[in-house]
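so my prof wants the structure for this chain in the tokens format not the other one, which i didnt know existed until like an hour ago. anyway here's the sequence
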Amino acid sequence: MSILSKGEKTRADIVEVAKELFYEHGYDGTSFSQIVEASGLHRGNIYHYFKTKDEILHAVIDLRLQEFRQVLDQWNMRYTDPRERLRAFVAMIADNKTELVNYGCPIGSLNTELGKDRRDLQKRARELFDLFRDWLAERFAELGHKKDAEPLALHLLGRAQGIAVIAHVYHDPKLLQREIRQVESWIDDR
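here's what i got, hopefully its the right format
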């Protein structure tokens, strides 16, 4: 484990604050001033690391990609059965039910928001979905679904997103739990 320099820690703190604000308020709903205020830093200090909010978003996406890669690597090490790995993906939904009910899915919400009028940024944010799509497709291929691996992966991603959206819309964690059980049964049938 490497120790961060003071500058690296400051930059990482800015990105972490922005990650939470973008999730809770949306990208457009978060101003540069809010990031400054929430970070507790002076505006000039933030400008030293990031000139624009878009630059901060790129750093947030990089952080989320790193975090999700670590999670996927842990699942690959922990579980040998592809179905168990797929179930771990679904368990991630259950583990984050409070956040999902309150704010929706962080990567789904971000992609939806950016896809409306910031296609340049949405293309970058899509990398988060691509990471999961590719990982899920590998699991379905391991189960013998080589020809259908990507469509099955996209179906599972779509179901996960649908669960997050509906649970958020109805603000209902029980609905989320019921839907998760159905997805787990679907995985077991593969």
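also thought this was worth mentioning. The chain has a mean pLDDT of 95.
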